[in-house]
Write a structure and sequence with these properties.
By secondary structure, this protein is mostly helical. The chain has 9 helices and no strands. Helix content is 40%, strand content 0%. α2 packs across α5, α3 crosses α6 and α4 packs across α5.
């Protein structure tokens, strides 16, 4: 396990300016998390499913079913979609939350967020343009036919430029690049954190209905506010503080 009391685990102080591989976290011992690592190795949200009502249980358990073939994205777009989702979520080993399939299903069913930026196209068009733009950028940077075919360092670099709104030319000239990043990440993160495996990773106790939450106040301190069904983390390092340290 990495020593997070030292500053050299922070991306800005590492030679490649990338965060350490999350394998420094404990191995999951109960339930499933992405890549079978996480801060709560003894926690399994599915152990509490008997406290959910039937409708909630049906919705949540359906997310565990193996995804079928994509319905919105084409066969040519699929590799870039999957590579992008894996890179931005640092999912480089199994088990993975099937984020690409969730995004595809949402777009195929037209289950959009009900709003869009005034200077942006429909989210479905935005996604197609982003994937095309990533393929073009990979071709310009390393001569690869697609983003999915590029080496991981190249993918990371292109995603970093995308997040900063710095990709230009070709398809990118048709988009507000920063807003395109926001559109894609909103849907990607929503998909990831809707899955029980992600809940295990962050120690989320799952649906509150009809069980509810009891400890809404009281004395300060982690032990005072933890619900009976919640688990204490195996690591006390606060990831928010780590990010603040990195930015300082």
């Amino acid at each position: 396990m990495a020593d997070t009391s030292r500053p050299d685990h922070l991306p800005n102080l590492r030679a490649d300016r990338q965060p350490p591989h999350p394998s420094w976290l404990p191995r999951q011992r109960r339930g499933i998390t992405p890549q079978m690592i996480g801060r709560y190795p003894e926690f399994d949200v599915l152990a509490t499913q008997d406290s959910w009502d039937d409708a909630t249980r049906k919705v949540v358990l359906a997310r565990l079913e193996p995804p079928g073939p994509l319905r919105f994205f084409t066969g040519a777009e699929e590799p870039t979609l999957r590579a992008f989702c894996d890179i931005v979520l640092a999912q480089d080993e199994e088990p993975r939350v099937p984020v690409a399939a969730f995004v595809d299903a949402k777009l195929a069913d037209g289950q959009l967020d009900g709003y869009q930026y005034a200077d942006m196209p429909d989210d479905r068009d935005t996604w197609r343009q982003v994937l095309r733009g990533l393929d073009e950028a990979a071709g310009q940077r390393c001569g690869k036919a697609s983003f999915a075919a590029a080496a991981i360092p190249t993918q990371l670099a292109l995603v970093d430029q995308f997040s900063r709104g710095r990709l230009q030319g070709g398809t990118w000239s048709e988009l507000n690049v920063r807003r395109a990043w926001s559109v894609c990440m909103r849907m990607t993160l929503t998909a990831f954190y809707s899955h029980p495996w992600a809940w295990n990773e962050i120690g989320f106790g799952g649906p509150a209905y009809p069980r509810g939450y009891m400890r809404l106040g009281g004395p300060s301190g982690p032990a005072a506010v933890r619900e009976p069904f919640e688990s204490r983390g195996a690591i006390d390092t606060d990831p928010v503080e780590l990010m603040h340290d990195e930015d300082s």
